[in-house]
Amino acid sequence: MIVTAILTFFIIGVCAFVLNINWKTKRLYTNYTLIPYRIPVLGHLLDFLKDANQFIFDNFAKYGSIFTANICGQHFTFLLDVHDLLTMTKNPSLVFSGSEMVTTIFGSHIQEDIAQVLHKTIYPQTLQRADALNALTVRFVESFHQSLEKDQMSSPEEWRQCGLFDLCHRFIFGASTRALFGDIEDEELKELETNFVTFNDKFYVFSRGLPVWFYKLFYRSAYQAREKGIKLLIKQRPNQSEFITAAREFYEGKHGDVFSPTDVGARMMIFFWASLGNTIPATFWILYYLLTTDKGRILEILREEILTHGENMNEMKVADSVINETLRLIGNVFLMRCTYKEDGTTLDLHDGRQLHIHPKDLVCYYPTISHYDKSVFPEPYKFQYDRFLHLNKLPGSYMPFGIGKSMCPGRFFVRNEVKTILITLVKEIELELVDFNYQQRPRFRKECVGTGVMVPDRDVKVRYRFKKQ
Ligand code: HEM
Predict the structure, then answer these.
(1) CB-CB contact of 69 with 44 (8 Å)
(2) Ligand 1 within 6 A of 332 CB?
(3) Would you say residue 71 lies in a domain?
(4) Tens digit of pLDDT for each residue in 120-133?
(5) Looking at the domain assignment, is residue 47 inside a domain?
(6) Into how many domains does the chain fold?
(7) Where does heme bind (predicted)?
C-alpha cells in the first residue's frame, strides 16, 4: 500500500515536472531550441563565462542558426544567419538593448531618447564630420609625437625592449585621452591610466550584466578603479575635443536636472573606455600580423604606399585593408536587441519561418560567425593583408563596429590613430620581434568574448629604436 502510494506520488511528480518544462518550452519557444542546461538558476552562465565563442560555435553546429540560451534566467535567442540580420535591426519594435548593460558596466543609466540624440546629432557632428574628425586627429598626432620625443630624448638610437601590447598601450593611451579630454596633467593621466588598467582587466565580467553587489563583493578593486576613474573624469580640462564639449553641454545643460556630476563622470567613463578598450588590443593585433606575416614584407608595401601618397590618410588603401582584415579576425561583439512591447514582436525570417520575441528576451547576432564563413571569406583563418583591397565596398557580413543605429561612432577616428602609428613606424622607428616562437604565439583570452575585439592572452617581446633622420 505504502509502496503504491510512493510510486503514485513519484509518477505524478515526474509528470508534473516534465509537463511544466514542456509547457514552458512550448509557450516560449515554439519551433526553436532552448538549449538544455544542468544547473538551475545559473543556466548556461558557466559555459558562457568560460568560453562564449566556443559555446556559440558548438551550438550553431548542433542546432543551426537559431537557438536560445538561458543565462541566470535571462533568455538570449541567437539569430546567426546573416540573411536575418536586417530583419532584426530594421524591426521598429526592437531596440538597442545596451541600456541595462551600460548601467551595470559603468553605473550610469541611459534613456533611449538621450541615446538617440547622441547617435543622430552629437556623434555625427563631432566624430564623423570631416573637419571635427580632422581636428581630433591633429590633436592625437601632436600628443603622440610629444610622447615619442620624450622617449627618444631619454636614449636616442638605443634599442629598447618591451612587450608589443605595452608599446601599443603607450602609443595610444595618453595621445587618445588628451585628444579627447584635453590637457590632463601628467600625474592625473598616470592615475587615470592605473585605474583604466585595473578596470579594463575585469571589463568582461562587468559586461555580463550581473548585479552590482556581485562586483562590489568579488571584483572590489576593479569596481573601485571604475569609481576613481569616474571621479577623475568629472573635471573639465582646457582644450577638450568638440565631441566631449558637446556631450557635456548636452548632459549638464539640457539634462542638468537629471544628471548629477557623478552621472556626467560616468558618461565620460563610457566614452573613455570606448575610445581605448578596443583600440589598444586592435592596434596590438594589427602590428602583430604585420610583424609575423611574410617576414615583414607588408610593412615594406605600406612604406611604398606612404612614400607615394605622402601622409594623406584617405589614400592609404593598403593600410585600410590591413585594418579591415585584422578586425575581421579579431572583431568580436554581440549585437543585441530587445523589445519592450507587452506582447513582444515577430520576425519574418528569410526562409519563410517566423520567430516570436517575447518581452525582455534578448535577440543576439554574433558577427564572428560570418567573419569566419568560408563562403564569404575564403580561407577564413588566414590573415590576407590585401583581402579588402579589391572590394568597392565592405561586404554585408562584415561588421566589427556593429550595425545600424548603435554602430560605433569612433570608427573613423580609430583608423586615423592606427594610420598615424603606421606612418611613424615606417618613417621613424625600427620595430622587430625578439625570440618569437610560433608555438607560444598569443591566443584570444577566452573569457573576454563579446566585448568588442579579442584580447591577447599574452604579450609578444619586441625591440624598437628611432631611426637616424
Ligand atoms: C578598433 C577599435 C574599436 C572597435 C572595434 C569599436 C567597436 C564598437 C562597437 C562594436 C560598439 C557597439 C556597437 C553596437 O553595440 O551596435 C561601439 C560603440 C561605441 N564606440 Fe567604438 N570601437 C572602437 C573604437 C572606438 C573609438 C576610438 C572611439 C572614440 C571616440 C569609440 C567610440 C564609441 C562610442 C562612444 C560607442 C557607444 C555608442 C553608443 O552610444 O551606443 N570607439 N564601438
Answers:
(1) yes
(2) no
(3) no
(4) 999 999 999 999 99
(5) no
(6) 1
(7) 408
